[in-house]
């Protein structure tokens, strides 16, 4: 009788049959917290040389800088941010680099204060800031008071009680003081990276940026990521950022090289990196590797999502190479998986179905199609199309001064007979 242990070892054998120790594809970017993870990130990170050079050029100055990295969701902003921080941590050992993701309903100064305090576990004042905000810390902090009694000999009684939880009333000032304390230890300065501004609505981002002007012009380097629209929101705030860098889709040669790097990071007994050698993309055949890269559209998150499903399909089929037939089955399996992850509303599903039917939906959409979808203008439809893009179910195509969307070019969903 087959046991759960047997199934585990069978899955282990299936991925090794493909010549891999594990799947290299991951939807969330690697956050290097140790040397092993940093090495893995360096192995798989591909391209963006021009953008990296622009960022690193700024770090050749003593003057603190503020950098905004923008791009659509899934384009690789977080991975780019982690790569920048990974390089800085290796090349600038006297610089403190801090990464955090912006939570909902929290201002930038508080976010930066918490992240920096957590990066300074040996600083008692930093730990007090965390404790007072109700954030768990490793040490016990006590508030000490002294009572003095008057007798023939003065007696002193020392008592302790837990510090109370208090929301930080002046996060910008507290952050500035904490940065000053950090700079006494880290002579090359402090870099604070705040990710995921693109997960906030534009009006929230505008307010966050307005409120954070004092913080951004303070003692530290700041790297932020956001939607391309974030840069547009800040045009009136001159001098707020020294560099606004927009990441675009990777071209096909770079995407192909990224596939080589990913596979090589987990391949068993084969470290071929020669782009002209068919072994460099095993278990993909060269033609299926090229097709896979075309379908992923130069979008790193879509690349990882599709890659994960294709490898899972190949493992279930217990094959040794990913030929065109296996790739087709894997891409077919990806379509319903992406829709399941998206958790679309009824109206979003109707727009997706129309997109699949029309193949292109743009500002030139007919009034009949708009009425069928229950909207009166394209501007009402646009947020839904952008939601589909965020879910990797659509992408924007280049048309002169016209917003246009097309479905991700995946084959139709498979049926049980396909397997």
TrEMBL record:
This is AAA family ATPase. Pfam families: AAA_16. It comes from the Bacteria. It comes from Pseudanabaena cinerea FACHB-1277. Residues 45-205 form the Orc1-like AAA ATPase domain. InterPro entries: AAA_16, P-loop_NTPase. Gene3D superfamilies: P-loop containing nucleotide triphosphate hydrolases (3.40.50.300).
């Amino acid at each position: 009788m087959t046991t759960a242990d047997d199934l585990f070892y069978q899955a282990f054998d299936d991925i090794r049959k493909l010549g891999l120790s594990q799947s290299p594809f991951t939807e969330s970017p690697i956050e290097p917290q140790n040397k092993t993870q940093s090495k893995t990130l360096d192995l798989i990170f591909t391209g963006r040389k021009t953008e990296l050079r622009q960022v690193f050029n700024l770090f050749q100055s003593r003057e603190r800088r503020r950098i905004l990295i923008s791009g659509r969701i899934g384009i690789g902003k977080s991975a780019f941010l982690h790569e920048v921080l990974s390089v800085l941590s290796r090349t600038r050992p006297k610089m403190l680099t801090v990464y955090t993701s912006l939570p909902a309903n929290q201002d930038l100064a508080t976010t930066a204060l918490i992240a920096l305090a957590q990066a300074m576990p040996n600083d008692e004042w930093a730990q007090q800031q965390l404790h007072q905000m109700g954030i768990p810390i490793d040490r016990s902090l006590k508030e000490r008071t002294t009572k003095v009694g008057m007798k023939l000999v003065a007696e002193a009684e020392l008592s302790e009680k837990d510090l109370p939880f208090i929301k930080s009333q002046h996060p910008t000032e507290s952050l500035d003081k904490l940065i000053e304390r950090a700079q006494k230890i880290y002579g090359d300065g402090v870099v604070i990276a705040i990710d995921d501004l693109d997960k906030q609505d534009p009006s929230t981002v505008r307010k966050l940026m307005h409120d954070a002007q004092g913080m951004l012009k303070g003692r530290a380097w700041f790297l932020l990521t956001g939607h391309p629209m974030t840069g547009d929101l800040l045009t009136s705030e001159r001098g707020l950022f020294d560099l606004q860098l927009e990441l675009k889709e990777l071209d096909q040669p770079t995407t192909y090289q990224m596939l080589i790097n990913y596979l090589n990071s987990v391949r068993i007994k084969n470290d071929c990196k020669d782009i002209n050698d068919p072994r460099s993309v095993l278990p993909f055949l060269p033609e299926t590797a090229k097709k896979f890269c075309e379908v992923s559209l130069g979008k790193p998150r879509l690349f990882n999502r599709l890659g994960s499903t294709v490898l899972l399909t190949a493992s279930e089929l217990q094959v040794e190479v990913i030929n065109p037939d296996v790739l087709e089955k894997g891409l077919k399996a990806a379509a319903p998986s992406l829709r399941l992850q998206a958790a679309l509303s009824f109206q979003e599903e109707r727009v997706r179905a129309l997109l699949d039917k029309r193949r292109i939906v743009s500002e030139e959409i007919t009034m009949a199609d708009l009425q069928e979808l229950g909207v009166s203008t394209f501007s009402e439809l646009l947020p839904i199309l952008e939601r589909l893009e965020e879910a990797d179910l659509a992408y924007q195509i280049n048309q002169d001064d016209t917003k246009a969307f097309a479905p991700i070019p995946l084959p139709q969903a498979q049926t049980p007979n396909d397997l």
